[in-house]
Structures are given as C-alpha cells and as structure tokens.
Design a protein that fits this description.
four-stranded antiparallel beta sheet; binds protoporphyrin IX containing FE; single chain; 24% helix
Length: 441
C-alpha cells in the first residue's frame, strides 16, 4: 500500500518532529478579550510557527500554537464549526476530571489558576536549545502581543529538559516514540510497525482503516491535531521514601524503582537487562527501546504488567483490546529545580512534569490510556491496581511484581503525582491559523 503524502508544510512542527536535547521551554497562556485582536494574534503567530517540513526552527526557537475550545469561541468561530469538534475537546479537561482520575487533591477546584477556567484560550509553546536563546525569542514574541490590546498573557510556565533527559524522579524520559508513516521521522522501536498518519494528524487514514471526519470547515480541521497538556506536580521525597521503606538496601531500592517504571533510571529497559542496570544501554537510542513483551516475558517476570511503561504501551503483550489504537506522541518537559540527591523530606518547592500528549483522538488515545490503562488493571486481567508511578493512588494502592515461586505484592501506595491543571487544545495547521486570522464573523 502506498504511503500517504503528508502535507508537512501545513502541519505544526511540534506534532511530528522531536525536539533538541537539552532544551529550555516556556508555555504561555493567552486570554482573548477582543476577537479582532485575537485574530490579529493568529495572523502574526502564523508567520513564526515552525512547520514539520522545516529541518530546523526559525532563529533557533520552535514555536507552537494551540487553542482551547473556549479560545475558538473567543475568536468567533461559527457555531456549526464549533459543533463539529469532538465532545471531549468541547467540554475541556476540567469537565473530564472524574474520567481522568483528577479527584481529591488533583481535582480542578485545587488547580492552579487560571488552569481549568474558561480564560485559557491560546497556549503558546516556545522551545530553544538554552535559556538565553529562549529569552531573546520571547522578547521578540512579547513585542507581537504587547502591542495588541484585547489579548492578555495570563500564565507562564518555564520548563527544561536536562542534558541527561532525567525527569524529577530521576528516570531518563523521552525514549519511546512511535514512527508515523510519511513523516520521515523514525520511531525508536524498530520492532514496532509505523503508524498510519491519521493517528496523529487529522485528515488522513488511521489505524481503524478509514479517514475519520475532521472538524469543519476542512481548511480548519485538516492537518490539525490535539494536545492534552497537564501540569503534574511530582512528590519526589515521598517517592524516595516509599522506595526506601519497601526495600532492604540501596540495590533493592533501585530494583524496585525499575520494576515500578519498567526501566532503570538510566533508561535501560528491564526487558533487556532485568537483573542490573546498564547505563550504556540506557543511553543508546538504537537499543534502549528495541523490545517487545509477548514472546519473551508474557507473565511480566522481567517487566511487571503493571509497570508504568508496560501499562502505557503494552506493545504486543496479551491484553484486552488492540494496543495500537491507543498510542500517543509525548512531549514532556520538567519544571522546577531537582530535589538534591538523598533528601527524603519535602522542601515545599513545586517541581514536576509539563506532560503533553499529542494525537488525533483525545478519547481513544489520551483518555483511554489515562483511565483504563493507568488507573485500572482489567485490560491485563490484573487486580484493582493503578500505575505505581503516575496513577491516582490514595494510600491503599497495590503493585504486583511477578516472581517465582510467589509474586511479591507491594501495598500502601499513595499519589506521587498530583495534577495541578491542564487543558485540551487543538493544534491547527498553518493554513488554518491564517483562516482563523481572516475570520470576519
Ligand atoms: C509525572 C508523571 C509521569 C512521569 C514521571 C512519567 C515518566 C515516564 C518515564 C521515565 C518513561 C520512560 C521513558 C520513555 O519510554 O520515553 C515514560 C514513558 C511513557 N509514559 Fe510516562 N510519565 C508520567 C506521566 C504519564 C502520563 C500521564 C501518561 C499518559 C497518560 C504517560 C504515558 C507514557 C507513555 C505512553 C510512555 C512510553 C511507554 C513506551 O513506549 O514504552 N506518562 N514515562
């Protein structure tokens, strides 16, 4: 079958292209008070957004733009068009809180303002190789929106990816990426078939075999995608204490951490080195994601079925359903300073992950993984356990580690990751940005 021709020059770069490492990034949220000013902003931003056809960014900084449902409304997008967007997007992330496990201290009433409110309209992300380049780029961007009365920047989050790509719990992140047909961007698992482009970009055939309807008019929907961004606070001290209290020494502690994640902190997968860490393997992008589960480890003796990476991507493991229709592109970046090594008491500083899902289906990709795979275990016939790293545990969580002759069951897991807010946004193609700029309703 022929590979679809993806209109790379119309797709925002952040949908398909990986980022540099290390990098500094910023999220800025805008509220549109005046629709004409909002349209003017769309027009100006359409000239600085990088497309997936660009090998590098304009002037060292990649800029992406996404709009919430409220943002499209604030721009005066016609009602018939608004109605053509999927329900999850129309409702917004805060309304979906229960499904997402955002309850208790993670519930929207505790979110950082203005996250979860109807004021979140436009989300700009800028990424540079370092803070210096980022600030220069932001100075230029500020001129763009400061002169615009009727559009206000209401929130900013600075983020970064460290040179060793480790997130706040100390694990190497950013390893697993799917290959997308026609994008020329390779995936990181050579054993995983490339995905139909329609899984990640609207207007193309997807893994279900057809081309799903795109939001209307076609010029607005085609080449767009969705992003679910979430500010996830990480309780690093509590995570460390849990590891210490549930293992018999530093080596056992590292093994437990690896069992919970499915990878050693170096990124080396348990699937390829189940007994000890192998930092060289962890850093080798040709080998560190080159594995499946079914033949080699159906029970989970190496990588427990409930480990974070096996839940969020069971690969070819025997599960209820078809794993391929729940894959996602992730664009995670850390925020806040690291907690110094060895500290076991919380220092009160906010740190964590600005998680970003990118895909064409908020429902069957992001929400499904978050609710069914992360916060439930029936898909692999497990108990009522939740993801041991990022699940909505409440102090009574369990985690099973398959072992001969008897499995080991850990108890008393609490929430190590608290949701501080987030939103569902649409990432328009470049032509769509100009269409939004030219609206005259
Ligand atoms: C603060 C919360 C989180 C932390 C610390 C975290 C950390 C990690 C780490 C260290 C990896 C392994 C590196 C890699 O495979 O790239 C990973 C993989 C992954 N995570 Fe998370 N994650 C978090 C939240 C989430 C959420 C909310 C989702 C989805 C709803 C998610 C989905 C995934 C997926 C799909 C993978 C790739 C699995 C694979 O392909 O093997 N993660 N995560």
């Amino acid at each position: 079958m022929s590979v679809p021709v993806l209109e790379l020059d119309d797709i925002q770069s952040g949908v398909l292209r990986p980022r540099p490492t290390p990098f500094a990034a910023v999220y800025i949220i805008f509220r549109i008070e005046d629709r004409n000013a909002g349209r003017e902003l769309m027009g100006r931003l359409s000239t600085v957004v990088a497309s997936a056809a660009d090998a590098g960014p304009a002037r060292d900084t990649w800029v992406s733009i996404a709009l919430s449902f409220q943002g499209l409304k604030a721009l005066g997008v016609p009602q018939s068009s608004l109605d053509s967007f999927p329900l999850q997007f129309q409702q917004g992330m805060a309304t979906r809180a229960r499904i997402l496990g955002d309850v208790g201290e993670s519930s929207p009433e505790h979110w950082e303002k203005p996250l979860g409110s109807t004021d979140v309209h436009v989300v700009l992300t800028a990424i540079s190789p370092d803070t210096e380049h980022l600030e220069t780029a932001l100075d230029r961007a500020r001129k763009t929106y400061r002169e615009l009365e009727g559009v206000t920047a209401i929130w900013r989050q600075d983020c970064h990816v460290r040179p060793d790509e480790k997130e706040a719990f100390g694990f190497r992140d950013g390893i697993g990426h799917p290959a997308v047909e026609g994008s020329a961007v390779p995936g990181t698992n050579h054993k995983e078939r490339p995905f139909k482009a329609g899984e990640f970009v609207l207007g193309y055939q997807d893994e279900m075999g057809g081309v799903p309807p795109v939001p209307q008019p076609e010029i607005l929907g085609r080449n767009g995608s969705y992003v679910a961004f979430r500010k996830l606070h990480q309780r690093v001290a509590a995570f460390r204490r849990y590891l210490k209290e549930n293992s018999s020494g530093p080596e056992a502690e590292e093994l437990l951490a690896a069992k919970m994640m499915g990878r050693w902190r170096s990124g080396a997968p348990l699937a390829l080195c189940p007994l000890h860490d192998d930092p060289e393997l962890g850093a080798d992008s040709h080998r560190n994601n080159d594995f499946l589960f079914k033949e080699d480890d159906p029970i989970g003796y190496k990588t427990p079925c409930g480990a974070h990476i096996r839940r969020t991507n069971p690969r070819d493991a025997g599960i209820a359903g078809v794993a391929r229709i729940h894959r996602m592109v992730r664009r995670g970046t850390s925020y806040g300073p690291s907690l110094p090594e060895g500290i076991l008491e919380d220092d009160g500083v906010d740190r964590g992950l600005m998680f970003a899902f990118v895909g064409a289906h908020l429902g069957r990709q992001f929400e499904f993984v978050q609710s069914e795979w992360m916060n439930d275990s029936s898909f692999f016939a497990g108990d009522s356990a939740k993801d041991p790293v990022a699940g909505a545990n409440d102090g009574t969580g369990i985690f099973d580690i398959p072992k001969r002759p008897l499995r080991k069951r850990l108890q008393g897991l609490s929430r190590f990751v608290v949701t501080r807010g987030g939103e569902y946004c649409f990432i328009p193609g470049l032509r769509a940005l100009r269409w939004l700029a030219d609206l005259n309703t």
